[in-house]
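Most newcomers find our protein records easier to grasp once they have seen one. Read left to right, the backbone structure tokens trace the chain's path through space. Nothing more is needed to start thinking about how sequence determines fold. An example says more than a description, so a record of this kind follows:
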Amino acid sequence: FPQRTRFVSQIALGLAAVPFGSLLYGMTIGKYNFKVRKQTLFFPDLPPEFDGTTITQISDIHSGSFDNPEKIQYAIDLINEQNSDLVLFTGDIVNTHAKEMHPWIDTFKRIHNPKLGKFSVLGNHDYGEYFDWSSNEEKLANFNEIKDLHQQIDFDLLLNRNVEIKKGQDSIRLIGVENWGKHFKKAGDLELASKGVKKEDFKILMSHDPSHWDAEVQHDDNHYHLTLSGHTHGFQFGIEIPGWIKWSPVQYVYKQWAGLYENVGRYVYVNRGFGFHAYPGRVGIMPEITVIELKKGKNVA
């Protein structure tokens, strides 16, 4: 009996060490284990000049959580290696305060300026909603500083507005809404952001929270071809083995929580996030740099 008790105790200790070891790995290695994920999407009505256009998407920087300049520089180099035609950032540049980004401005300013530009939107953390400010004036000042950060790293911040992206004789519309979340701040105004956009235009929408796509965008008569989101971080915890399993607790809150989803030819891609927040690590759901190639034609899959 003593031998069996000792054996069972050793097994129990070993099993208890598994989650501890996973969390420790996530805090030391996983949080900076950047993955480049590539996706090709086909659209019959993609303007011919945009056939083969590439987009690099990053999301959820959360600069206030960073603690390793070399790893962040490595990630910026990965972004630049993709040499995409367009770079898009889908919100949450800080955790709360604008000053969190100050040590990283020069680093993120090194993201290359591609042919078609660099554009961004705000995320829920960019509004300072999760901090007890001493006054509304202080909160507003911080918010204005956060908006200015985008210009400092050479991104054109789209606040419920759209821009025409031209390539040769063709053009597409890039639309950026402020944060709209089922569970968080609803500052996004899709109608205002799409002012001047025609139904027949090819449209890419940037909307931080994928619950916006689920609740409004996928059913909108304007037909938004591709929506790019982030926000969920994939909960920074889960299991992903391509072709076998994809699971995270966040899937019980968000129907679209990581990767590509489609409804009658309308797509949303949910980036797993560049940074991390709250839990200072990642287990199973690694930080992501997304590269999407647009192709003209029908999806053969």
Observations:
- The longest strand covers residues 35-43.
